[in-house]
Sequence to fold (292 residues):
Amino acid sequence: MLVVSIILLTITIQTIIQYSLDRQRNTAMVVNLSGRQRMLSQQLLNEVYSCRFHNCDYAELKLTLNRLLQVHTVLQQGSESLGVEPLVNEQIAKNFRRLHPYVAWFASNLSDLGKIDQVAFTDLRYRVDRFVTIMDSIVLQFQKKSEEDIRAMRIIELELAIFSVLIVLFEIFFIVNPIMNRIMKQKEKLAEIAWHQSHAFASHMKNIKDLQYVLHLEKNEERRNEIITFISKELEQLNVVSENMVNALEKSEHMPLPHHKVLKKVEELLEKYSLVPSEEITHDDMVHSSKS
Fold:
């Protein structure tokens, strides 16, 4: 029982730890993508500026825009490949709804690379600034949510650790310790039996054999009767030794089992608070009743 409970507790703790690590990885990925969105919006502004006043890299501009739109969708709807769960926090979702007009403006005005020159740079810079400001709020919200999740998981792990210690202590005091006491008592009984076997029993048997040998040699009838009397006494002593050995074995066999003691304590506790009638409380191999 102790081994099984330790195995179950270990499996439970490891399951919770792995779940906590998965949650932390998911949260770290979300925070990383949110921070990346700010960088992509600023990079988008730089690419448009380069197209307006310097050499234009249309491929880089298109790639940056596509990444921004894709990450914006992933942060809300989730992604199995990236291990990101769908957004369920309403406060964060509210800020994403505030971002929607700006993201829609980027998609409609910057998707056509042939019309980049027609985009008002001041409008773009204003919308990028607003986008970055809202994304800062979203990143902060994700970080706070991550901290709350970590604190909750730590509390659960601490409670589970305390519960595990209590379970182990309960098993040590109410199961392991009684079993050890029973084993020690059985050891004492076996030692007592071994002493009778090796000393008293063996001694009387030797005396009987010696007296039997002398009896065969002795011719005097009076001496023979005396030797027979000694043999009878030795047999009586041998019978006493045998009875002592049997009594020791019977005491060992009738010792209460450790789990009976635990069940008896539970029975008394239930009966004390009147949770279960005393006539209905039973053990696995005997019936107890406080009224009997």
